[in-house]
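Run log // design_07
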């Protein structure tokens, strides 16, 4: 057997799976996004780019886009900052280090729906009870019941569970920091903060990029937490793009329009990810 044929035979199963589960569904999605199909009818009309034009004029979707972008910024900043601090604290040598690391990673093994339901009960019953007992007015009400504060309850839930994975990635990245450079900086009289920004942080650029991409993707596609915590309320104040697509496609019988919205979200995530990767890829490990 010729080497080229052997390579082709090994490559073919992966190619077939890629075509079946990605290329073909993507092509069908693009097609249905240009129809008025309701999701179950046997007949529908081809409307071209009308759905995409309507999206730009849809105040509900624009509100969901604004909510999602603001939510993503909060999640990315908090998750990366807290994960980095925890990684630095857990990177040292101390008693029960493995056990403590496991405890911090435990939330990552839970499903988002499970965590959301747990925090929903905490926000509904536990926190208000504590607030009333302590006489703290701000804590005596359900944070999810207010359109202005509901987003922060969702963000806190996401951050509580979401810092585990980036923390582990940062811990792995800290092993790439040369100890001799840290020792040299210490001998030269650099403070811990100066050593961090001048030595440690530059070598964390690659893992920082990975964590940032994952956090942004998770923020822009948030769905599970909203379903479990607020169901898009109160008053549609917490409708994200992903949740709105689900509502309009599965409950409001606007499957074609919802598919067009999903293509819009796909393009938005792609553009943001490419910009982010381009900006961070200019910095190699050890450079800042």
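design_07 sequence
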């Amino acid at each position: 057997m010729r080497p080229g044929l052997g390579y082709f035979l090994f490559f073919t199963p992966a190619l077939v799976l890629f075509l079946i589960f990605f290329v073909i569904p993507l092509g069908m999605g693009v097609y249905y996004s240009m129809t008025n199909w309701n999701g179950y009818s046997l007949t529908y009309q081809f409307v071209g780019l009308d759905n995409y034009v309507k999206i730009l004029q849809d105040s509900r979707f624009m509100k969901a886009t604004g909510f999602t972008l603001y939510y993503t910024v909060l999640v990315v900043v908090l998750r990366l900052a807290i994960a980095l601090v925890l990684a630095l604290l857990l990177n040292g040598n101390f008693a029960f280090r493995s056990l403590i690391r496991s405890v911090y990673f435990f939330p990552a093994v839970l499903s988002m729906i499970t965590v959301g339901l747990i925090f929903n009960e905490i926000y509904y019953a536990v926190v208000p009870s504590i607030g009333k007992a302590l006489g703290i007015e701000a804590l005596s009400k359900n944070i999810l019941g207010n359109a202005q504060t509901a987003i922060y309850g969702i963000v806190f839930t996401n951050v509580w569970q979401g810092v585990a994975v980036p923390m582990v990635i940062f811990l792995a990245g800290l092993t790439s920091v040369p100890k001799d450079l840290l020792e040299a900086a210490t001998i030269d009289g650099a403070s811990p903060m100066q050593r961090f920004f001048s030595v440690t942080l530059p070598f964390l650029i690659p893992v920082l990029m990975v964590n940032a991409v994952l956090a942004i993707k998770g923020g822009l596609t948030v769905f599970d937490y909203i379903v479990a915590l607020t169901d898009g309320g109160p008053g549609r104040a917490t409708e994200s793009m992903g949740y709105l697509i689900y509502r309009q496609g599965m409950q409001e019988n606007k499957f074609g329009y919802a598919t067009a919205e999903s293509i819009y979200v796909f393009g938005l995530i792609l553009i943001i990810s490419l910009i982010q990767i381009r900006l961070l890829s200019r910095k190699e490990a050890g450079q800042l």
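Residues 59-90 form the longest helix (32 residues).
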